[in-house]
Amino acid sequence: MNRTFNKKGGIAFKTLIFAFYRIIVLITVTLMLWIFVSYFIKLNIDVNEVEAEVFCQGLINSPNGISYKDIETARVYPGIINYENYKSDDLEKQIENAFYFEENNYIAAQIHLLDNESKPYKGIEPKYYNEERFNSWYQMGKTGFIGVGGAKVFEKIYPVQIINQDKMDYGLLKIIIAIPNS
Description:
By secondary structure, this protein is of the alpha+beta class. Helix content is 41%, strand content 25%. It has helices spanning 7-40, 48-61, 83-87, 90-98, 131-143; strands spanning 67-69, 76-82, 108-114, 127-129, 151-163, 168-180. It has a 6-stranded mixed β-sheet. A hairpin with a 6-residue loop joins strand 1 (67-69) and strand 2. It is elongated.
């Protein structure tokens, strides 16, 4: 069956078919452009991991942190921990003075000094920054709850040297940070 159109009808039909083709191509290009742009736009920026790293670096590199500080020169030796200073009870107050957060409701940490076998160095207990909130935020962080009311937990491990009675030992500094989702 050979259908023939008159000249005007054939031109109108071809124009109509081409218009549908153009509409389909336009919709496809528009959708692809929308998908491409929306893929690269971030609506939520999560900086908790960066904040945890900044806290750790401040703890290790700050003069009021836990690194060894030479009394005569006031120089801080990052990555070197004085065991006598670490095991003292004043360390937790010193850490609280190193970081000032109003009402102290922003970040909490547990600090472990470990030997090479990842066991507590000479059986010493971990130190805390904001201990009360760490215990509650750590439990919330382990639940994996996303959103307000939850928390995120980060664990950082750094190799350190430990000065113990004029003797240098190698060890690890393990810092567990809990940050609430707010």
